Amino acid sequence: MPILMLAGSPALHSRSSALLRYAGRRLAARGLPGSELGLRDLPAEDLIEGRYSGAAASHLRRRVAQAQALLIASPVYKASFAGGLKAILDLLDEKALADKIVLPIATGGSAAHLLALEYSLKPVLSALGARHILAGVYATDRQVTVRHDEAAIDAEVRARLDAAVDRLAAHVTTAPPARGYDLAYLALNARFSI
């Protein structure tokens, strides 16, 4: 049951990455360790030029294909998720997130950008085949502070993130991964088939 954590921030010690790593530690404590792959792990030239056939892109696609669930974290810039994360997602196959459970996580300057998850990130995840996207977790800069390698997370954000991670863990441990079809679609068709 591999879990892949995609970090979309260009900064090593960003707020969004701090939330991602906190979520990863919570999953590991539940016996569901994950691995992290981020913007900084892929060659900048490959991202800028969209080198789909490059070794880094192939490695990325392999890691995503092996994952049952993904946590995807991004800072919000100008009311949208980070362009670097979009460059990563552009290197994936068209339906790379089909049959995956996805938990989006984002941080931004103010609560005014809360809907960036709904209106900018989730449509891209859906275009990549994701049909099981959990309710995302958004935090403002005031709710997460990072100094060097240490992060302080507001209690309310921590509670929301804990609940989201627990939901993801429940889905991963109880539902076998689907193969090639959206489970909700199959259930709906089974109900209405003649």
UniProtKB/TrEMBL annotation:
Class of this enzyme: oxidoreductase
Descriptive protein name: FMN reductase
Keyword Aminoacyl-tRNA synthetase applies: no
Family in the record: Belongs to the SsuE family.
UniProt source species: Bordetella petrii (strain ATCC BAA-461 / DSM 12804 / CCUG 43448 / CIP 107267 / Se-1111R)
A Pfam family assignment: FMN_red
GO biological process: alkanesulfonate catabolic process
Zinc-finger found in the keyword field: no
